[in-house]
From TrEMBL:
The chain crosses the membrane at residues 12-34, 54-73, 85-104, 124-142. The keyword Repeat does not apply. Keywords: Membrane, Transmembrane, Transmembrane helix. InterPro entries: DUF2243_membrane. This is DUF2243 domain-containing protein. It comes from Bacillus seohaeanensis. It comes from the Bacteria.
């Protein structure tokens, strides 16, 4: 397998794994432990359990897919670079989950809020998005490995 193919699989696999992990963490913490919300709030409890079950099934499949992609990538040619790609991509994927889920479900579709019914519900929603941005930024810098990137002025 070529180095570029291996790097591509590590990039995609770590992103997918991070995306699925943050999805699972969201479901475990916000849906089950804190019971702040369900995927679809405007249903009876059995409907909420079914929507959460479908969500958990989807993130489980995402975790499995990420693991398979990383397994297919095999051992990285450089361990330190492989770890940077794995951790960076994982954090970028997790941040992407928070941003996509937060923007789509909390704001565009208004399916649920992070903590519905709370007088500070918007603060919770914005903190959720802020965490997504923070994960993306940290993941980017880890993946980049502290190297300064050349900048160009103009288009």
């Amino acid at each position: 397998m070529s180095t570029n193919t291996k790097k591509g699989l590590i990039n995609i696999g770590s992103f997918v794994l991070g995306f699925g992990f943050l999805g699972a963490l969201d479901g475990i913490v916000f849906h089950q432990l804190l019971q702040w919300h369900s995927v679809i709030m405007e249903t009876d409890r059995p409907g909420q359990i079914a929507s959460d079950g479908l969500f958990h099934f989807a993130v489980t499949l995402t975790l499995v897919l990420g693991g398979i992609l990383l397994w297919l990538a095999g051992n990285p040619t450089s361990l330190s670079k492989g770890i940077r790609l794995l951790v960076g991509g994982f954090l970028i994927g997790g941040g992407a989950f928070n941003l996509i889920e937060g923007i789509v479900n909390h704001h565009l579709l208004q399916i649920h809020r992070v903590k519905p019914g709370d007088p500070n519900a918007l603060t919770y929603d914005l903190a959720f998005l802020g965490l997504g941005i923070l994960l993306l930024v940290i993941g980017y810098f880890i993946k980049r490995g502290g190297k300064s990137q050349p900048t160009t002025l103009g288009a």
